[in-house]
Amino acid sequence: MHVPTPSIAMTDAERVLNLLIHDLRTPLGVAHGYLRLIREQRLTTGEDRERALASTQQALGKISRLCEDASAFLADPDGIARGRASVSLLVDRVTAQLRERGVATASSDLAGSETLIVGAGVDRLADAVSTVLQAMTRSAASGVRIETEGGELRFLTTAAPTAGFDPWRGHGLAVPLACRLIAGVGGRAGSNGAGALAIVFPVEMAPE
Questions:
Q1: Tens-digit pLDDT profile for residues 133-192
Q2: Exposure string (b/e) for 32-65, b if CB count within 10 Å is 16 or more?
Q3: Up-side HSE of residue 2: CA atoms within 13 Å toward CB?
Q4: Cα 177 to Cα 132: distance, rounded to the nearest angstrom
Q5: Which stretch of 50-59, 61-70, 146-155 has the lowest confidence by average pLDDT?
Q6: Does the model's pTM come out above 0.85?
Q7: Burial, 179: exposed, middle or buried (Cβ in 10 Å; 0-12, 13-18, 19+)?
Q8: 8 DSSP 8-state letter
Q9: Neighbours of 91 (CB within 10 A)
Q10: End-to-end Cα spacing for the chain
Q11: Is the CATH number 3.40.50.2300 carried by domain 79-205?
């Protein structure tokens, strides 16, 4: 009789290690393959050799970025600063980054006096929010609506309801790292309960 193997819940550190091992294989294979061609002098033209060196350098750069992301993910989350910034500043930075990434946005009127925790800096948080939203909209083929309501800042995808969003599947380490940074300042990323994908932050009025 076949006895099913019980599933074992992985810690985030184990997920990072699993993803790192998986994602390192392709660029390592690319770099190794091109270096072997160069060493064996199988590339007969200078143009081919230059192309091989450029591809090798690209692969090594990807390996470096993967290692940096893994290191950042495993850093102490309690070390995140608790600075604050205006909601409008974060929205402006996110909107600009999404525009560069080809993601359309629409915003309702945002109160200029609302603030939120941005951690180590508004630019870093904006990059994390943009990274996650780009991953969400790529899978949902949608844009992003931005609003504040009920003490929350919400970045909502505008597609029809979806089955959900898993940052650990198909996104490498950049998206889980961005989700971790968002959670570190009190935000959350995923389904909003109505099926839409969202990133939500608590906000409060600035003191008079």
A1: 998 887 656 789 999 988 999 999 876 555 678 888 877 888 998 998 899 899 999 887
A2: eebeeeeeeeebeeeeeeeebeeebeebeebbee
A3: 2
A4: 9
A5: 61-70
A6: no
A7: buried
A8: -
A9: 20
A10: 71
A11: no
